[in-house]
Write a structure and sequence with these properties.
The structure holds 2 protein chains of 2 kinds. By secondary structure, chain A is mainly α. Chain A has a single domain, classed as MetI-like (MetI-like fold), CATH 1.10.3720.10. Helix content of chain A is 75%, strand content 0%. Chain A contains 17 helices and no strands. By secondary structure, chain B is mainly alpha-helical. Chain B has a domain of 180 residues: Orthogonal Bundle (MetI-like fold), CATH 1.10.3720.10. A two-stranded antiparallel sheet of chain B has the order 1-2. The chains are: A mainly alpha, B mainly alpha. At the A-B interface, α2, α3, α6, α7 and α8 of A face α1, α2, α4, α5 and α6 of B. Chain A: It is a multi-pass membrane protein. Chain A: It is found in: Cell membrane. Chain A: It comes from Streptomyces lanatus. Chain A: Keywords: Cell membrane, Membrane, Transmembrane, Transmembrane helix, Transport. Chain A: Belongs to the binding-protein-dependent transport system permease family.
């Protein structure tokens, strides 16, 4: 199919450079002076050090015990207490940290999966059908980018508490199902990957609209769908204002909320939980980092596509 | 397209429309409705509270509330400094990436995107500890160079938050600008080089004008985010409540009015006001930047 070839090439462009197609579009390195290249590389190295330094410090800090954390040089190791710290994080308060991790995965995983399916259907409907009110739906999608979270979250809290959803997982899951940015991305992807002719051909063959959507459109949109899912997942995993507002009891909290609470504890109770907070922070980055690296192909296209269209 | 087919197409969007109505339109309508009321204590507060219709009273109060207005002014001023600074660095890095070999560009792009992979709350926790005079490495480092900086002092809070936001944002913005740079037709550079233009000149007169759209977009996204800033100041407040007040940013005021002061009607009015300000600011910015392009 002509279409898969096209998307295939687009992703090939993200791969390293041995392909001639890519070379043509790159500047010719020979045209640069050596000194100029060195200057550019130096700038990039400095920026990378700035970007990585906090993560390095966090990793080193997570290997220290309390004495090491307060008294040794922050930039170098002093004793090896990483496993003690990790154990402490997982056993503190009857293992509440594991509970928060599971909650974060539940909200981000299930919420984004449902949200992605709804977004793909909506994007497909908007991109490939011309129905009355289509412009209005799309206007809602784009207009909602400008709505401040407080304007939605506070009344949502009242509505949820009226129907008894506050402080249950549903209070996090339901809002994740409707994500205008996902819809926007899904529409852009549909326009790029689903040709009208293909749909016409399927209709002539007698396929129903639902069947076309589930067995043709969804299958062709796996790349787009994965991108939408990944960005929604990251969004939910990073959410703070919504969980802070709608989740009260700590057994329903997310990792972010739990870490926020721990980092505030230092002052109130006089107990020092700094190394707990730091090790917890390091652990909470790991799932996100694995996911981002494993799916980097998708989110790179998602970030740039969503922004440039 | 056949008529029945159109309606089937519309059906694909129905789940979203229902959800949007319930999760967006209904809450907004409810907030506007609630903002027109006020809870008043009758008599000496003994007879319990009654809810009264007060029209636009809450809005009038909001527009003359010095805490609310100064919180807006605070974030606007901060945005005017931090956003140009962050975007300038992102643009520079994107230009640098565009000018080195493909292999180097690929490696640095990943490294520079590491901060973007870290959730905002965790990033704030990490930087707060880096700033901390007790455990952070920055205070002893400052001493070596003869600085006696205290990042939790009132004059340093915004620079400290600004650095955190810049650190967190440059990678993401760089990738967007870099992607736009990749779209510049390479023949233009060859032609300019043949005419004897320097690399700097090419960057200034071809590359930067070409990525203008990406710059406007990243600036607009940053403005929208900045007016709603909440997480970072809230986490700083966790550590230094004496320097970061509970009315530091507009959203912090709204949150406190709703959940700590129990003044929900007023919080609703303030959030509607904030939405209007956000809309106006985005519109003005968009008009201003698109006019210049003509």
């Amino acid at each position: 199919m002509a279409l898969t070839e096209k998307t295939g090439r687009k992703h090939g462009a993200d791969r390293p450079p041995t392909r001639p197609v890519r070379r043509l579009t790159r500047p010719d390195p020979a045209a640069r002076s050596r000194g100029g290249q060195r200057f550019l590389l130096l700038g990039l190295i400095l920026a990378s050090v700035y970007s990585l330094f906090p993560v390095y410090w966090l990793t080193v800090a997570a290997t220290k015990d309390r004495v090491g954390l307060y008294q040794s040089n922050g930039l170098w190791l002093s004793g090896w207490h990483l496993w003690d710290n990790v154990q402490q994080v997982f056993t503190y308060d009857d293992g509440i940290f594991l509970r928060w991790t599971a909650n974060s995965f539940l909200y981000a995983g299930v919420g984004s999966a449902g949200g992605t399916l709804i977004a793909l259907a909506t994007g497909y409907g908007l991109a490939r059908f011309d129905f009355p009110g289509r412009g209005a739906v799309f206007a809602c999608v784009v207009g909602s980018f400008l709505i401040p979270i407080a304007l939605l979250t506070l009344p949502l809290y009242l509505l949820f508490s009226a129907i008894g959803l506050v402080d249950t997982p549903w209070a996090m899951l339901i809002p994740c199902l409707i994500n205008p940015f996902s819809v926007y991305l899904a529409k852009v992807y549909t326009e790029a990957t689903i040709p009208f002719e293909l749909l016409e051909a399927a209709r002539i063959d007698g396929a129903g609209e639902l069947r076309i959507f589930f067995s043709i459109v969804l299958r062709m949109m796996t790349t787009g769908g994965a991108t939408v899912f990944l960005l929604a997942f990251v969004n939910t995993w990073n959410a703070f204002f919504l969980p802070l507002t709608v989740l009260r009891g700590e057994e329903n909290w997310t990792l972010n909320l739990g870490l926020y609470n721990w980092s505030g504890k230092r002052l109130e109770s006089g107990v020092d939980v700094t190394s707990l907070v730091l090790t917890g922070a390091l652990l909470s980055i790991i799932p996100m980092a694995i996911m981002m690296v494993a799916m980097r192909r998708y989110w790179r296209t998602g970030v740039t596509l969503g922004a440039l269209k | 397209m056949i008529r029945s087919q159109r309606w089937k197409g519309a059906a694909f969007t129905v789940p979203f429309q229902l959800g949007f109505a319930f999760l967006y339109l209904l809450p907004i309508g409810y907030a506007i409705y609630q903002s027109l009321f006020l809870q008043k204590q009758s008599g000496l507060g003994l007879g319990g509270a009654t809810t009264e219709f007060v029209g636009l009273e809450n809005y009038r109060h909001g527009l003359t509330d010095s805490a609310f207005l100064s919180s807006i002014l605070r974030v606007v001023l901060f945005a005017c400094v931090q956003i140009p600074f962050m975007l300038l660095i992102s643009l520079l890095l994107a230009l640098f990436l565009d000018a080195v070999t493909t292999k180097a560009a690929g490696r640095f792009r990943i490294l520079l995107l590491v901060p973007y992979m870290i959730p905002g709350v965790v990033a704030a926790i990490v930087w707060i500890n880096l700033y901390s005079p007790e455990v952070g490495p920055l205070s002893p480092l400052g001493e070596v160079f003869g600085f006696d900086w205290n990042f939790f002092a009132p004059s340093m809070v915004w620079p400290a938050i600004g650095n955190l936001l810049t650190w967190h944002g440059i990678g993401y913005n760089m990738v967007i600008i870099y992607a736009a740079l990749q779209g510049v037709p390479r023949e233009l550079f060859e032609a300019a080089r043949l005419d004897g233009a320097s690399e700097l000149r090419i960057a200034l007169s071809i590359k930067i004008p070409f990525v203008r759209g990406a710059l406007v977009l990243t600036a607009l996204l940053s403005i929208i985010q900045m007016l709603q800033i909440f997480n970072e100041p809230a986490l700083f407040r966790n550590v230094t409540p004496q320097t970061v007040s509970d009315s530091f940013t507009p959203i912090m005021i709204i949150y406190n009015q709703a959940f700590n002061a129990g003044n929900y009607h007023y919080a609703a009015a303030l959030s509607v006001l904030l939405a209007l300000i956000l809309g106006i600011a985005s519109f003005l910015f968009y008009r201003l930047t698109s006019k210049e392009a003509d």
